Amino acid sequence: MNNAQARTLIVSLVIVILMVVFPPIIILSSRIRTYGGYGYILAPHFWGTSGNPNPAPDVDLARFVLQCVFVLAITGIVFIALRDKKTPTSNKPASRPKRSAVRHRLRQ
Predict the structure, then answer these.
(1) What φ, ψ does residue 24 adopt, rounded to 5°?
(2) How far are the Cα atoms of 5, 19, 66, 69, 78 from residue 81, in angstroms, in the given order?
(3) Whether 58 contacts 36, CB under 8 Å
(4) Residues β-bridged to residue 32
(5) pTM above 0.85, yes or no
(6) Domain count across the chain
(7) Which domain holds residue 59?
(8) Do the Cβ atoms of 56 and 26 come closer than 8 Å?
(9) Is the separation of the CB atoms in 22 and 41 below 8 Å?
(10) Tens digit of pLDDT for each residue in 49-86?
(11) Distance CA 60, CA 68 (A)
C-alpha cells in the first residue's frame, strides 16, 4: 500500500465516522414519513425527551446503508486506481544468456 492509498482509506474512514455521527433521519408522525435531513445522533431530541410535543426522529436505515455502499464502492475504485503501476514478473519473457557466455562454456 502506498501513501496515496493510505490517505484514501483515512479519508473514507473519516467520512464513514461522520455518517454514523450525523445519520439521515426521518420523522414519523401519524403514519406519515417525512425526511428530516441529517441529525446529530447524540442530540436529546433523538431519544424522545419527555415534554417534547414533536415526535422523535428515527434513523433512515435504507438511505444510511445506500450511503455506506456508495462510499465503500468509491473507496475501492480509488484504492485500486492509485496502486503502483508495476508490471507482473510472470509476463516477462525469459532472459537468454549472452552469446559470449554460451560460446565460452562450449569451448571449455
Answers:
(1) -70, 140
(2) 9, 24, 23, 18, 5
(3) no
(4) 29
(5) no
(6) 1
(7) 3-107
(8) no
(9) yes
(10) 555 556 667 888 999 999 999 999 999 999 999 988 77
(11) 12
